[in-house]
Specification:
242 residues; globular
Amino acid sequence: MFGSISFGISAGLGGLGLAVGGCAYAAMWPSSRIFGETLIAPRTAGELALTFDDGPNPLWTSRLLEILARYDARATFFMVGKYAQQQTALVQQVAAAGHLIGSHSWSHPNLAVTSAPRVREELTRTSDTLAQIIGQPIRYFRPPFGGRRPAVLRIARELGMAPVLWNAMTNDWSEPSTNAIFDRLSRRIDRLQHQGRAANVVLHDGGHAVPAANRGPSVATVEQLLQRYKDSLRFVTVDAWA
């Protein structure tokens, strides 16, 4: 009897663990569609979207713009609203250079565990602020950490924004080696191309906790990626895939 009870408890805990793990996968894994569709990248080889999170950063975003301009490449910047409000001239510079600006929420919470009213406030405040700065509506949104649930995706779409995730990322926010970041990303990009898929690459030009974070390795990686793929891939912004 006790063995049966023990087995039942173990099975119940195992089931609970699977349920928790499944919810975590649905909420955080970029390719999961359990909670709803998101824009990642099409099954079309030959294209690469450089996307940047957590900016604008007064030093590194400016340097990033210089590198992109040298290669005549366009990128997508998912900006944190409270930092964009502090750097309006820089946000305008990004838009004037032809880059796409999207929302990365106001204060970078994990929206998978954020109340629906606050989710709406985070997204509305950011899109309104960015639209006022650049003079055009914000149509794309990337959830911080990739965290989402059905309510998050629904609210984003109600506000006219397509949720965007990714299929190529490394820990550039904490990795001090440019070569290590580049090697990991280039292997992932090459694998995606071999699979017949475009690459949606995430790097960071800012820091959600430290707005002036050192992003030197990330920015240097961008130049290496541009140099390696400038003759073989077309650099696009994510609206090319909408």
